[in-house]
Amino acid sequence: MAAEDTTVYLDDLDISQTGTKRQRTEEASGQNDAKPAPPKRQRTLGEMTFFSGSQRTVSRSSSTSTLKSSGSSSSIVGKSSNGSTSPLKGGMKLNAIPFSLSAYQVSLSDSEKRLLKLECEVMGKSWLKVLKDEIRKPYFLSLKEFLWKEGVRDLEDTRPTVKVYPPVKNIYSWSNFTPLGKVKVVLIGQDPYHGRGQAHGLCFSVPHGIPIPPSLRSIYAEIKNEYPDFVVPSHGNLSAWANNGVLMLNSCLTVRDGDANSHADKGWEKFTDCVLDMVDKYGGANLPSAGGGESGFGRGVVFLAWGAYAAKRIAKLDKKKHLILTSAHPSPFSAHKGFFENGHFRVANEWLEHHYGPESKVDWCKLDCD
Questions:
Q1: How many CB atoms lie within 10 A of CB 139?
Q2: Which reaction does it catalyse (predicted)?
Q3: Which residues pair with 77 in a beta bridge?
Q4: Please, which residues have CB within 8 angstroms of residue 32's CB and are 6 or more apart in sequence?
Q5: Which one of 11, 191, 280, 318 is the catalytic residue?
Q6: Rounded mean pLDDT of the chain?
Q7: From CA 120, how far away is CA 7, in angstroms rounded?
Q8: Is 154 a catalytic residue?
Q9: Global confidence as pTM
């Protein structure tokens, strides 16, 4: 395992307004050992007007950011993330959508079979059946041609010379940990970690044995604020959350070794926008219902958007259908500007309990599985 002081993460890099990157350590930022002040009294759901059906912005004088919370609706008629009205009640339920992997593979051209072999091999089937047409579009095939030249091909290609992260088998791990119908929270990231061994397909998370990234330390500190009994783990593996319905999605799913954002603007962003469209349409479809809503269709989920980039990615979603929580990014350079004391973990669970019952809450404190 690499020593912690030699491990560099994207959020260790301070990017100035001119776009110049300056590497800084957590120690220099003064955030590594600093603990945020104890949180103020938690706001209740009533105070945040989750049940009123109207959007409200709650401002804190101690922060330059705002916490946006929205009303909720159990109606399955709402806006899709492309802004159009989608009357889902007359559509097909998620589990009723037919899909045969073998028939799909037969329908592919020779070029598509080569380029989409990885998706057919490793993408979770609940996702593949709703994304099967998207990955045949020209932009995605162009993305796959680019990745092919970068060395990202299929599971049979294990050449050690490939310097793209995460490993090929983990590019779509989010889709296997969190089936579409069980999504209840979406955590938006930007770019996979670009150091060896760090990325494993879940945003903000690293495998066991890898030093905890600085942003994740801030996340742990905020959980400790909201749940004082939380025992901060010695690792940064968040797969337990993914297994519990938290979709941990980066906007770009691959990155070149040591080169942050090197695979940006190649097509991943358009693809993950489509993933969010599917969450808008079917997220939570297989969750038990506590307050109405037809099983088999999406009835709303929680979106955690930390930082301006993440907030922009989900800005077009229906704020009456979903709970959308925004704040500053947990990076050491911005966590004190509104991430600490944002109350997101408790607020998310209150909303989930109201919509889907107490069993739907995420155990944010349980991180003891691989």
A1: 13
A2: Hydrolyzes single-stranded DNA or mismatched double-stranded DNA and polynucleotides, releasing free uracil
A3: 87
A4: 26, 214, 217, 332
A5: 191
A6: 80
A7: 34
A8: no
A9: 0.78
